[in-house]
Each structure stands twice: as C-alpha cells, then as structure tokens.
Write a structure and sequence with these properties.
This protein is mainly alpha-helical and 504 residues long. The chain has 20 helices and no strands. The protein binds tryptophan.
C-alpha cells in the first residue's frame, strides 16, 4: 500500500517546502491582476462575499482532496489517479482527469504568459520614470500605446514563456522555493505599504464602501463595459449569473485547483505532514494577498475617477498613477512589478508542469523535449491573445469599440460571439474545465474511494475533522458546484433570447 510506495520524485522533509511550492503556485496574477478587476466588474462587496464562500465550501475541500490524492498516488496526476483507481477497484478512466488537467494548464498559460509579459515590460517602464506625474489619461495612453503593438507584446510573451520553460525543462525548483521564502513576505510588506498610501488618499472612503457594501444586483444582472445595467425591451434588467459563476471559477483559479497542480505538489509530501493544516495556511495566505491587492487598487481607482469595471487593464491603468505620484515611485513601482513578475513566474511553472509530465509519460519524451514542444505549442496559442490584446487587424475588420483583448467575431446582432480570444479561453477554462476537474476530484475522493483509504491518507487529528471533510466532498461541494453550473448555464442561455433595449 501507499506506505511502501515511495515518491518517484523524492520527498520533502518538512511541510515548509510544500507550503512554499504551493504558495508559489497559488499566489500569482490571479491575486493581483485578476481579482481586483473581477471585483470591479461585478460590483464589489457581494462578489467578495460569494468568492469567500466558494473558497470555504469548494476550494478548501478540493485542495485537501488534491493534496491527498497526490500523496497517495505519488506520481503524476494521470498515473496517480490510475493507481488509486485500481487500488480502489474503480475504472482506469479516472486517469483521464490528468488529461483534462493538462489541457486546462495548457490553455491558461497561453494567456497567462501574455499578461505575465506585460508585467515584465512594466518592470522596466516603472524604473524608467515614465509614469512620473502623469495624469490618469497619460497613464492610460501609455498603456494603450504599449498594447497597440503586437510585436512588442509578442516579444514579451516569448520572453515570459522562455523563462518559464527553462525552469521546467531542467526540473529545478529548489532554488525558486528558497526565493519564495524571502520574496513572498516582501510582496506582502510592499502591498501593506501601498495600502497605507491608499488609506491617506481621497479615494479611500469610496473604495471601502465599494469593497464592503453588499449589493447582489451586480452579481446577477447583465452590465455593460461601463458598469451600467443593461435592460431588455420591456425595461427590466437582464438576469445572468455570470458574477456568481466568475466568483466560483476564480476560487479554482486563484487556488490552482482542478488541474492537478496541487496533486503534483502533494505527491512530494511526507506522510507525517498535516494536509489540513498546510492547506488552511495556503488558503489564508492566498486570500489575504488578494484582499490586500483590492485595498491597494481601489483607492487609486476612486481617487482618479477610473472605471472600476475597466476589465483586465485595471491594474495597468491604476497602479502606475500612484507610482508616478509617490516619492521614490520609480523604485517602488519597479519592485512591485518585479515581485509580481516573480509570482506570475512561479505560478506559470505550476501550470505547465502537469502538461510536461503528461507529455513525458504519455508520449515517451525526455523532459527537455517535452518542455520545448509544450512551450512552442502554448506560445503559438498565446499569439491569439497577443493579437486580441493589441486589437489590430481584426478590429479594423469589424466595427467594435476598442476593448481589451478584442477579437470580435460578429453574429447577426453583433453580440453572442462578440468575445475576445482571451475572454473565450479564460471562460472556457475557469468557468468550465477547472470546476469540472474539481467536481471529478471530489466525486472520486468522496464516493469512489473507500472511507478507510481517505481517512488513512488524510490522517486528520480528530474524527470530527475527517467527518466534516467527508460530508463536504460527498454532498456540499459537489452540490454547490452543480447548482452554480446549472443556474449559470440556464441564465447564460436565457440571456441570449432576450432582446436588449439600445441605450444611448
Ligand atoms: N493560482 C495562480 C494565480 O492565481 C494561477 C495558477 C497556477 C493556476 N497554477 C494553476 C490556476 C493551476 C489553476 C490551476 O495566478
């Protein structure tokens, strides 16, 4: 049984190494780039509340299950699932969870890397003093000029992919984990300092009421890019569950769940280490960093009258204004973007790791070959996001207003397919593939594994802890996932049958 099966990768002696690796994976662009802009889009407090709820009832049980499965299987997600399924007398098809996971990681990295590249560019822009004493308009046009150049975006996307794949191809992470130990606290300190800066600004009051005011209408009704509600011809607001679906999807994204990344790290974990304790620590760390990022970004947004629902460009349009206005702004901005780049890098590594192990095992490649081919393929898919970011070529073909990552494919009435490449891939993965992977994981852990096995592997200190976990993964988590899924789907389909009133 699992006691005799030692990890093919060797083991971590303490829980610290696991915590560092998992923190490197979970803390990334999701916390600092994505969280603020989706909070802004879906109206603040109510979104944060639903998000926290999803973290608690979906995120934590799934993360514990993933780490548990990884530690029990001690292999790549595909082989771990295969071995455990066999031990439990279940179908070998469960191994395909590893396949879905590899696909999700592949797709996420294709745009993650484009954004990571933009962060890399901003490291140098911050240092150059370009942001000094710029108005909000100035910062915005700096950003627009930057992203209007597909060549430049492509170059940065390439650089980001290369630095990621170098680490993965050599299979070295030990050095990175030592760096995470130092850089993660530095990132938190810097965020706290920036938050302190925001507290003294005029936007602070407004940002507090935005972040903590609970109003569910933004979560369930359709809004346009300016944050105004959209009405149908009968004058009522259009029901969508996009906000709730997004909150759930983001719980997966920010905690690196649903594709086997945590399973891989779990496979290095020693048996003595408490899975529950480490998982709670990681979840708290990740959540605190996201909330801090919100507290840094929104005072700037409100002080300078920016649009909170600006979308993916939000941090690039807000933070540089503050860096340009504060003393030592070049240095602070430089450090901030550098730390963010590092966080994005360690996350990207964990996104590509499942793909690479999949290639090594399934296609009999060496690690270097697998990394090169995977890297090239992801890089190529990323080009779609580059072009939709720069909005060139295609924008001239269709008359759409300039939106971030616009790759508009018009339908009869100019919507429905009016998604960007980024929107499309992001929605496919975070709203569908990751939750799907998560659902399979909890169903397997809760219903297909014997309770003796999960009890033994989780090795929780108290009986009630185990019983709570098991009740969660059997009932609460899968039902919550299904409810959000089904309602989201129904609302999404329904939304396309209503005719919108045109408001000018
Ligand atoms: N969690 C990372 C972030 O917040 C992104 C990420 C890394 C991820 N590995 C993952 C998302 C695995 C889903 C699955 O930026």
């Amino acid at each position: 049984m699992s006691e005799e099966r030692s990890s093919i990768h060797g083991e971590w002696s303490t829980s610290l190494a696991f915590i560092l690796a998992a923190a490197g994976s979970t803390v990334g662009l999701g916390n600092i780039w994505k969280f603020p802009y989706i909070v802004g889009t879906y109206g603040g407090g109510a979104f944060i509340m639903v998000y926290l709820l999803c973290i608690a009832i979906i995120g934590i049980p799934i993360m514990m299950s993933e780490a548990m499965l990884g530690r029990r299987g001690r292999q790549s997600p595909y082989n771990s699932m295969k071995i455990i399924a066999m031990e439990e007398g279940r179908s070998g098809w469960w191994a395909w969870l590893g396949g879905i996971g590899a696909l999700s990681g592949f797709l996420i990295l294709s745009y993650y890397s484009v954004v990571g590249g933009q962060v890399a560019a901003y490291v140098f822009r911050a240092l150059s003093g370009e942001f000094n004493s710029q108005s909000a308009e100035g910062i915005r046009s700096i950003y627009e000029d930057f992203r209007a150049n597909p060549e430049v975006l492509l170059a940065w996307h390439t650089i980001f992919m290369v630095i990621t794949l170098i680490v993965v191809s050599r299979g070295v992470r030990a050095g990175l984990e030592r760096a995470i130990r130092i850089l993660m606290p530095v990132l938190i300190v810097l965020l706290v300092l920036l938050m302190g800066y925001g507290m003294n600004s005029d936007g602070f009051q407004n940002s507090m009421s935005f972040l903590f005011h609970i109003d569910f209408s933004s979560l369930v009704f359709e809004k346009d890019k300016l944050g105004n509600f959209v009405f149908d011809t009968s004058g009522s607001r259009i029901f969508t569950m996009k906000g709730i679906l997004t909150a759930m999807g983001h719980a997966f994204f920010t905690l690196s769940l649903g594709l086997g990344a945590i399973m891989i790290y779990g496979s290095y974990l020693k048996r003595e280490v408490s899975i529950a304790g480490t998982v709670f620590l990681i979840v708290i760390l990740d959540t605190v960093i996201a909330i801090l990022a919100g507290l840094v970004v929104f005072p700037i947004v409100f002080e300078y009258g920016l649009n909170p629902s600006a979308g993916p460009s939000l941090i690039f349009e807000s933070l540089p204004i503050a860096f340009g206005a504060m003393p030592f702004g070049e240095l602070i901005g430089f450090s901030f973007f550098l730390l963010l780049l590092f966080a994005a890098w360690t996350s990207a590594i964990s996104l590509v790791e499942p793909v690479v192990t999949w290639m090594i095992e399934r296609h009999n490649m060496t690690r270097v070959q697998a990394s090169v081919w995977t890297g090239i393929a992801i890089w190529m898919i990323g080009i779609f996001s580059v072009f939709s970011a720069s909005g060139t070529t295609l924008r001239r073909l269709v008359n759409t207003t300039s939106d971030y990552f616009k790759l508009a494919v018009p339908d009869m009435n100019g919507r429905f397919f009016n998604l960007t490449a980024f929107d499309l891939v992001d929605a496919l993965v975070t709203l569908f593939l990751l939750p799907m992977g998560g659902l399979f994981i909890v169903v397997f852990a809760g219903w297909r594994m014997r309770s003796a096995s999960t009890r033994d592997e989780l090795n929780l200190r108290k009986d009630w802890m185990y019983n709570t976990w098991r009740f969660m993964v059997r009932y609460v988590t899968p039902i919550a996932l299904l409810v959000v899924f089904i309602f989201g789907l129904v609302a999404w389909i329904g939304k396309h049958f209503v005719t919108r009133a045109v408001i000018t």
